[in-house]
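Field: COMPLEX_INPUT
Field: COMPONENT_COUNT = two
Field: RESIDUE_TOTAL = 788
Field: MODE = joint
Values follow.
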Amino acid sequence: MEYSGNSSLAQQYYFLVNFFQTQLGPGATVLGVVLSSDKTNISSMTGGRSAHPLLISLANIFQEFRNKASNHSYLLLGLLPIPKFIHKKRKIRGMLEARLYHSCLDIILAPLKAAAAIGVMLSDPVGNLRWCFTPLASFIVDTPEAQLIACVGGKTSPLTVANYQQFGDDFRHPSRTGSITLGTINQIHRLETDLGTLEKYEKSAKSYRLNGVQLPFWRDWSLSADPSVFLTSEPLHHWHKMFWDHDAKWCINAVGEAEIDFRFSVLHNRTGYRHFGDGISKLKQVTGREQRDIQRYIIVVVADAVPPPFLIAIRALLDFRYLAQSPRIDDNVCKRITDALRLFHQHKKAILDAGARRGKKQPLDHFEIPKLELLQSVVPTIQLSGPPCQWSADFTEHAHIEVVKDPARSGNNHAYESQICRFLDRLEKIRNFTLATSIRNAGVQFGDTTLVEDEDDDETGFREDVVLTTAQLLPFLWTSGYHIGTPRIVDYFYRADLMKRGLLNQSSLRPFRTYQSTENLVYHLSRDPSYKITISEATDLFNIQDLSAAIGSYIMHHSSNQASSHLDLFGGRRRIYPGRLPVSRLHIWNKLRLQTTSYHFPHDKLAPYTINAAPPSAMWPHGHYDSAVFNIDSSKKWPQSGLHGMHSFSLYFEIMNQL
Amino acid sequence: MVDVRLIFRIPHSGPFTDDTPLGHQITGRFLAYLQRYDVVPQRNPTGAQHGMYPDANTGLYLLKRAVRSTGEVLGDIVPLDQLRSLVDVAPRFGKEAGPGLTNTNSIVFAKEFWLNKYFDKELFHILSS
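Field: COMPLEX_OUTPUT
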């Protein structure tokens, strides 16, 4: 999987590669190591057995490829022990667990540390030997494990030198670099004379806000001995969970359970999106997906029900999360992220004033929230390691199913470790065999780069089916029937193209049922209409009183403007069709599907969604229809235009005159 | 922003056939009957000027239904290929949400609406850049 030289890679991973490269000098290949560890439950139903898997992946793999579960980019590197120490004090047991964790990682990661220090010769996919270095690019963990890795004690930030009383500060405290932590550990050893017992060591470490680990695993990892760099921001645990644990609770407290639940319940259902029919205050076991679904609606729900500064504070944090989740982030976005956080801190007092921040018994008067402090480090992390969404635990938690849970459940509940290893070995062999046979079936030639240099740099000399990258290989394999797990999303763009070229059964139907109307948008309707009725029947069924007048006006407009097919007028003066309308029947569709491409990566197709336009029914007494944006000014191009040239904007002057 | 009330086409009939340009406009394409929302102008963040700005507190555009001078809701027909995106329009509840609201009528009876950019991350980037 070779992506060097890929411009998209440069976008997301540029700073980090650059950082490593400048320290390594020319000729070296940087292989950024991605690690992840988290405890997970492996017994289905009962038993309460858990495992502590350590996963590994490669930062050089393009993020969207790496983070697609079906590409198997996260591998099981080890299963860490989950010990039960018998010491009677919990604090001491915690310290021993932390030390064991670091010792285990020391053993497992020794080869990577050696390769980071002196390099290792590895062959790339087309057979060239490369001198590779393996610094740690990211360690994806939740907050408690981040503290464990950074070797800090409770109520202390793993990324900065802030302690809990400073978590609500509106600025970033200095980074807790690896050398600061190592210096403090040395200081303990040097200054504290009495470290004879575990209890005494634990006590001294605690006074320095450390967790008592003597040898952090990262201390001798060349280029990577700094947790404040490799502990990247983690959207799932840091942001979405904070939203539910804090922001959402503040809103529930300020608005009141009954009112906020009612407001959520009367929002319009959108096909394909979660609707909170019973509100949110009684939700139990809220998943990351639900935390995100609540964020979609929280602002419109609490608007006007909380004081304006309160609303601005909530909205600022929401802006922060949405911006920081962008797949592509430049300096301008970084600035907006910083501004959003500042806006929150300027208005956060309103949340305390409303008594909305509550502890178990009484309202709290502070913002000592560890996850709030972590937000201060998001922009510095982005500038070093690229957009945080690629380091999300969403993907590694999903990988747990494949590399630990499924293998563990396939065995007989004995000797988990060896059975899991054997299962994964066999699975990989089967996968490689399938891959090899389908490459052969597809007749793919792998590229030989020396060939190009010998011939006079003539690109046309390339045979089209010579493959240099995984991205080029995959389309060949799909056509030869190689499936790699989960189905890909429906591609209406492809279908629209086939339709236009007359290659589908429905190609004879006019107008085309699947049609690409702009570069970045395709709509799709079912083959047959839902209704074939007269205009007056449609007027009654859909309760649209001026339907026939509108149709008459539409025909009149085009009779006088035959050249332009784009309708650049909406709701202007109605033209009256003289005499009887020349049409009487309509074919009506209840809904359509719409597929667009991504705003940040225009070559990426998004999952299609549904737009309803159904008549009133028992379930929907007023009809079931959705809202949309239509283009009026054909010179403006969605989505770059924003709302300019769309309906609202053309009308702005009209409203002004009325005021 | 509009509500999409009707998606239809006019089948071949009478004077319109596909081979004339006019016939193509009338019967050769899908059409939609739409009801329009207008942005309620707000003061801009720095000065006192009114214009197409989002509401200062929510950061969302405030909408109301466009009406004709006769008071009826303004609806019109536009070719379906001018459709650009699904959006979420949510009712403005005010201080307390009216007790008679349900999930099917809240959008019908509301007087003012929010264009909810937080509905979708794609939409968020388009509407806030």
